[in-house]
Amino acid sequence: MPGIPYDATRTALEAPQLRATVFVAGTDYDDVALSVEFARLAYMHYEDGGAELDRLKEGLGRVRFDDVVIFEDAATGTQGYGASRSVDGLCVLAFRGTEPTQLSDLGADLQFSLTDWTEKAGRVHKGFACAARSVFASVNQWLEQTRAARRRLIVTGHSLGAAIATLYASVIAPDKLVTIGSPRVGDADFVATLAGIDMTRLVDCCDVVTELPPAVAGYVHASDAAYLTRDGVLASSADPDFVRDDRLAARTDYLRNYAWKTGNVVLRDLADHAPINYVRCFMS
To answer: Between helices 103-110 and 160-172, what is the axis angle to 10°?
Structure first.
């Protein structure tokens, strides 16, 4: 069972950067556990420098990452970072998701018409493509700079950040792609560009964002879901009947224990999208 309690607060959903890292120094984490916390830490406002950048570096230092490079495009409101671990050559590329107070993020989410993904193939969400393209140059520079020492590359992100991570994976073919609460990104031809990539698409129980944009106009998910149950456990399969019953029980429990409390999110379908509620499933 998870060691971190379920968090139904609006703060967990709307300002995940306020919570300190849950990494414990000296602990070895697997790729997925590293990725979910890297994706949550992407919400820290490290682009401002100073204390927030120091917080990010301290958190990553707990898991022995010793170099961090920041990516930002102010016009699109796109942020992310690349981190390197010299002890084993592991590099992680993480992108920030939607911040509710940032109009640029909301604007990107709403540009849901499909556009050609000329970087590879297929058609993808226009807003996601614009966000990804805005930091291509700086990310590619970092990839080139780390090439000689890099042994493995993981790409990750939450929400909008997961969509950007998926777009990048189609181009740079990382060793691992881990998406957290990802919306649909593109059509079947785009998804075909991800063939052969080791991908984990995490879906936390009722998370409504994973059902957006609707499966119309060609939108499909990039892979099968790795389903996290209402109790915060990775299910052995995403059997439709099991998922339906688990979600019904989750929503009933939420109405009884969480929805009515001051400061909490009203619906479990939104609360499950909070990054910490993904992290809790992989941290003891």
So the answer is: 60
Neighbours of 218 (CB within 10 A): 16
Quote the CA–CA distance of 54 and 258 in Å, as a whole number: 34
For 209-214, which contacts have Cβ atoms below 8 Å and span 24 or more sequence positions?
Answer: 209/159, 209/181, 209/182, 209/183, 209/273, 210/181, 210/182, 210/183, 212/183, 212/184, 213/112, 213/125, 213/183, 213/184
Read off the pLDDT of residues 128-164 as tens digits, 9 standing for 90 and up. 999 999 999 999 999 999 999 999 999 999 999 999 9
CA pair distance 178, 38, nearest whole angstrom: 10
Percent of the chain clearing pLDDT 90 (strictly above):
89
Domain regions of the chain by residue span: 10-279
* pLDDT (tens digit per residue) in 54-68: 999 999 999 999 999
Assigned CATH for 10-279: 3.40.50.1820
